[in-house]
Amino acid sequence: MTTxxxxxxxxxxxxxxxxxxxxxxxxxxxREFRGMCLYIRGAEPLKRELRDAKIHEDYKGGIPVHVIALxxxxxxxxxxxxxxxxxxxxxxxxxxxx
Length: 98
What we know:
Blueprint: H1 3-9, H2 12-21, H3 23-32, H4 44-60, H5 65-72, H6 76-84
């Protein structure tokens, strides 16, 4: 049986997962979590933490607040608020552009 045939036979959430991640990943998830209800939370909090870490790095690199604000589509006041917070626990390689 080819992968295309399997993908056509998958229905519901498993079919949607196969469409996004591929058939092999969907089947692997199915085997691992068989019959369990999974809640997959949104990535927005992590994206904000990554953005905030990048703001700290930009500021440490000498980029002015107004330029950082334009870069991330934020107000200067919000950039200053982010800078006053404790730096998120990410290193210099903070992941892909989000």
